Amino acid sequence: MTVVDPSESSPGTRAAARKERVAGWRVGVLASPAAPVYGALIGIIVLAWIVVTIDGGEFLTTGNIVNMLQRSVALGIVSLGQTVVILLGSLDLSVAALISLSSLVTAQQMDGQPGNVIPAILIVLAMGAGVGLANGLIITKLRVNAFIATLGMALILGGIIENGWSGPQGGVTDAFSQDLGYTRFGVIPMSFILFAVVAVVIWFILRSTRFGYRVYAVGGSEDVSKLSGLRTHRTIIGAHIVCSLTAVITGIFLASRLKAGTPTVGLDGGYDLESIAAVVLGGTALTGGRGGVIGTIGGVFILAVLDNVFNQLEFNSFVRDVVRGIVIIAAVAIYARRQEKKA
Amino acid sequence: MSEQTLLQMEGIRKSFVGVEVLHGVDLDLRAGEIHAIVGENGAGKSTLMKTLAGVHAPDEGTIRIDGQEVSFHHPAAAQAAGVGIVYQEFNLLPDRNVAENIFIGREPVRAGIVDRRKMERETAALLEEVGEASFGPRTPVRWLSVAQQQVVEIVKARSLNARILVLDEPTAALAEGEVELLFTLVRRLQELGVGVLYISHRLREVFALSDRITVIKDGGVVKTLNTAETNQRELVNLMVGRELDGYFPERGAKDDLGDVRLKVSGLSTALLRDVSFEVRAGEIVGLAGLQGSGRTEIARAVFGADPIADGTVEIDGKAKRFKHPRQAVKAGLGFITEDRKAEGLALAQSISDNMLLAVRTVMPSRKRRSTPGLMTVKELAEVTELRARGPEQEVRFLSGGNQQKVVLSKWLETQPGILIFDEPTRGIDVGAKAGIHDLIRKLAKDGVAVLMISSELPELIGMSDRILVMHEGVLAGELPGGASEPQIMELATGSAEVAA
Amino acid sequence: MSTENVAASGFGADEQDRGRRFLSALASTGTIFILLLILWVWITILNPTFAEPGPFLAYLKRSAPLVILAAGAYFVLVSGNFDLSVGSLVTVMVVVAARLIEGEPSRTWPVILLLLVIGAVVGFANGFISTILRVPSFITTLGMLLILNGAVFWWTGGAPRGALSDNFRSIGRQGIEGIPWIEQLPWSVLLMFAIGAASVLLMRADFGRQLIATGDNERAARLSGVRVDRVRILAFVLSGVLAAVAGILLGGFGGVSAQVGKGLEFDAITACVLGGVVLGGGRGSVVAAMAGALTLEALFTWLNLQGISGALEDTVQGVIIIGAVGFAAYRLRGAR
Q1: B150, B269: one domain
Q2: Which residues form a coiled coil (chain A) (predicted)?
């Protein structure tokens, strides 16, 4: 936030400006919902490092870091899109089904031909935009609650998948799979760069474009936004398109990683509820209007580190679920307490 | 004042589900004019304004701005045509700052990026234009007082280059001192050639401010008058269609007062410091003060809705410390809150459910059947002269006055010994107001101790047996009933150090 | 307050007797009953045996678990919360029952008691975290879903073990035999009606009125003396206990599997929403919510009869749910 001094005409305005700068800082940095997320992340990393080291394993090695980054990508990208719709006061339960479908369609359209890679990606992106548009239209024009609308969409997509595919779909080209799924620049995997690019783009959209401002406004209050002359339906539809696009990008990435499309990759990963959990873990309010991408990234990393630790300690995957559930509830309980103190 | 006609509304009709709410309304507004619109609640003022704002499309009729016929299908279209509206319920986003709120939906962009500097610069200029220096463009709206928020609303309308500004009950949430500031602001806009439609229940303000007055009743215009050629009595007659003699019921005699029912000593909370007072059975004690002076906080603390840091509350001589409102209700307290919709009513529930809500929480149904004096829903409706279709009607369909009667019924049913009223007649039309005043006095005569918070000084003066005045969390003084407005304001603004 | 005033006020001028009140309530939430009736008639046209007592009772029996879950979901939804944990709770019930009973009939009743207690405890935990600790219930119950799923398989070592006893299964499968004309009155149908009647009574009682008022306006309810946290926790407890009942019935229907409860939380919420319950609280009736569950089950039957392949069934279901809720939203808007 750059400091602009409005006309320094009177002591009154100067004092107000000073008070505001302090206020801005307090609101911007310390009170940012992302602050405790990174506090928690650092804490968890330290704890994980100690626990893993005592256990005789190695935590902060190149291989392990790559592993963690790699694992963050799929959940990370879709959580970024989920952040946008949650900020808006909506949510999207159809992302898991859409991830599966897009992984299948990617493989099917590539059909093993290197020349098909770009068209296939474009087709899948268009499909994502279409699903997002449909979600947005159902919510705005039919006035169906977002929970039911996207749940219905998940059923619709699930049916299409079941009707069209009974098992994995081959056809992802070797080069594409290698490039996106396995290339690495030093510690940084290619896929992580994809995640970073999507994150920066969405961060920029939310922070600096009219659309981003309007997402926060509609999330703050749809009525107020509408009465202020904002065309809220367009914002809602736009946000759902962004969210669905991140879901199909996740699907494309998973297709490259698995070198095939699979009907169950989305649901097995639990991307619908887990992406919501990551967003909320990142300090974004489920009611909308407060939070952002930075927090979500922290939330995704926390889940990735936890995953990694459980793998290293060779914990039963069921224990992992239990701890995950407890962490999510506990984190949100702590945020709630902070919010209460501030109010 | 220029005679150029800015806005012309002709034959506006609007129906909802087959019920016509507006029956052909005509209204015009000149540039640089303040045109007041008065009428009872439910007369159709708000619906009329919403057709102008593009929230509702009129079924029939034309709207002309500068002689050009316009039709708005979205608030954005009305804004583009120069119509700015400040609604009764504020329309600001608490989590966004002042500049972001003012430019919502039309953020300035440069190369696709929101030009934050420009937004803040222009906001600062707009705030300066209205002489507001207590906050700046980047202050989060959450931190602003109600009065400051209203300035933001008006500046927001102004920033649209609104040439037609609609203010819907702008003083409803303001204390007396803040009203003057608002008037100054409105007059300044008037000088700039803005036409102002000013909707208000408070006739005193209408006379102080307006050039012309239009009275609306039952969805139609009764008459448009020049302010200089009319008086309050005529206006009230036109609004309610009947003579109202004497605004306030007679006070009780001094010796009617009973024992002390509510005694507060040394009450301190996050906002209050060492507040002490008592209310006797049969007495109406008024509580005055500016917005934020701690009036409502007293009520909430006594009622157990907010924590108490220090001090004691005695009910009928017994010390109590309520941790939950339920305990207060059990001890015979009732609290008619300031904000009916947010804190008084479950709007989607029926009249009967709302009326019985409080008694249900403190008395099991078996005991209710054997308790004498409990009224049926129908009897409650009779006592409060409620107008409604029946006990199963949802309260959200009732007018403000009738909603308030439902809230009152809810507390009557608990047979309270102490009633706290917070702004009992806010947003209620003239006719219903008198009914509520009568009820409050009647309750006092029946031995209820009444504490009444109000921003409307005539109401406080007319109703109270004694008036307590708050200033910045401290009890600044006590005045006898019938004290003058300047006396109260002196204490409330802190300009008199020692009170009578 | 003379009688003239009453006449002038017109309050209750049209004295509503019970019957009329019932009719007007039906008219306001009636869409679901009409939809249900249309589906029944349509199914009967496609397959006339559906209207015969045997098959119709079989349909009711099949619907009973979802109807019971819908009632539980209703209490939570109407108070302004979500319960996403009921599906996994159903799975927990079946898996725990199989592991503890191990086919031993004598253990049936103690285990059933234990299941009900587990349901209540989980519900209480959901409620406590969502109210006292102020975690949004969507997150609380989502976390609970993960915890329950993880915990139960951790305990059983990955796959369900053990077996249910015959008398445990009989609750879901059997009924009162030898009744003329209908032959058998299934326990589950009886249980469904009993729970339905109890739910209606509960919603009419002080608790129900306080619960729905809390969902409508929490602040107003609190200031009227309602212990909003307590009524909301109770709603979660009811949801948990009803999930236990549904789990016991489902254990009887099918085998012991880890999939038994999957997606049931969404089906229950969908049923409520079909019945006109508004997410966010304060609106809707429990009868309509249960009718919503019957409608959903009828919809599944109808889809089967239409010969829609199992694969596309989900798609059609999704379209119909969106359409029905959109239609309800359209009606609600019209009524304003």
Answers
A1: no
A2: none
